[in-house]
Amino acid sequence: MSGARRPILWFYTPAMYEFARHIDAAAVIYDCMDELANFRFAPDRMKDMEAALMARADVVFTGGYSLYEAKCKQHSNIHPFPSGVDVDHFHQARQRVVEPADQQAISGPKLGYYGVIDERLDLELIAALAAARPDYSFIFIGPIAKIAPEDLPRAQNIHYLGQKHYGELPAYVSGWDAALMPFALNGSTQFISPTKTPEYLAAGRPVISTAIKDVIRHYGEVEGVFIASDPQHFAQACDDALLLARSSNAWWKPVDQMLEGSSWDKTFLAMEGLVDGVISSTGFAHMQAAKGTSRKTAASKPIILGEVVGVPGL
Predict the structure, then answer these.
(1) Which of 226, 222, 253 is nearest to 237 (CA)?
(2) pLDDT tens-digit profile of 28-57?
(3) 200: helix, coil or strand?
(4) I want to staple 46 with a disulfide (CB 3.0 to 4.6 A). Which of 21, 37, 117, 196 is the partner?
(5) 0.70 cut: is pTM over it?
(6) 87-259: which CATH topology?
(7) What is the rounded CA–CA span in Å between residue 112 and residue 102?
(8) 3-class secondary structure per residue, 109-145
(9) Could you give the CA distance from residue 174 to residue 176 in angstroms, rounded to a whole number?
(10) Domain locations along the chain
């Protein structure tokens, strides 16, 4: 059809490739955020589907360095993009913000988590933590997925507030004294690079995490980030984080300097350059046939196939 433009196909999951493999695309992008084959209820054919997508993809992005290291030999044009952060958005939590009504009634100290509540969380750790620190309140914000609600740990000081909009998160975090990343160490977390790490720090909250490889790699030496290997050490890390939060905000300055290089705008520009490059190298000959259409206008906006798992937060 005269004037038609070839789309860019942008995949977040290999499961969508079979539906779209027939499309003549200006470029095929695989934005690999997780090792989805390791997730609960993943299709048995997920690895085969990913191999087919990788074979077709012009460029592959990974959501962190651990994932990049696991896949870098599978594609010749693969690039790691660790989590960025909207600093201005989360800086709102450092200001005097009206705390949402469903959190106001919870007594402190408050330690919170937001994100999908699924098999990536260490439920036994959460239960042990609540028992070890009965005077602390542990708040969980986000949808429950792939686990039964009745399997969640229950205690008077554990509070599940449900899913909230991204725009509401700074108001909730403003009421926390520290932020939690109580991830289980299993196949589904082996390669994660949690987006919430820089978001919590931008919000001015100390972070307590289990020993996730990319958290240790990027934030293990950052003041305000505490890594714990077992429930006893995690509880002690919560104590230390609260002490830091109440003592001084001086640790915010080096954190902010570190986060300056982590904006989503910089991530976008870097990705855009790589996408433009593959369009130029793989599709320009085809586009030239369309009456000399320029490189910048010949490809349409991306068609996004698949959703990012773990919103809010990964």
Answers:
(1) 226
(2) 999 988 777 777 667 777 888 888 998 999
(3) helix
(4) 37
(5) yes
(6) Rossmann fold (3.40.50)
(7) 14
(8) CEEEEECCECCCECHHHHHHHHHHCCCCEEEEECCEC
(9) 6
(10) 6-84+263-305, 87-259
